[in-house]
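Appendix C reproduces, verbatim, an entry submitted by the partner laboratory led by Prof. M.T., so that reviewers can inspect both the input and the predicted structure.
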Amino acid sequence: MERRRYFRADGAHSFYPKAIPILTFAIVVMLLLRAPNFAVRGAVVTLALLIVAGLVNFRLKLSLHALFAFYSTMILFRASLVAGILGLALALLVFWSRLYLQRHDLKEVLAGAAVGLVGGIVAA
């Protein structure tokens, strides 16, 4: 099986400068519309995670896939033990896939997972 080469875009120059202002605007709208506190808190934590990931990205291309998989897992554990266990199984598959597909090395996936776990604990 032929392994394709993928372009590794520098997220600091493309994704983060777009995502951070959009999410900031969304948070302002949520506040103006008096969205539920849990939704605003989740959006604020997500914004903080994007800012941290964007800053870390200048030194290490952490895995956003792993970050958001583990972030979501922690929130799912808050909702239900079964949902959390299923989420963890899927997050571990995401972790493995990033390594298997050689999109990230172990340090990058571990960093993404760690940041996501912390963010998920804060958000939940």
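The mean pLDDT is 90. Additional entries are available on request from the coordinating office.
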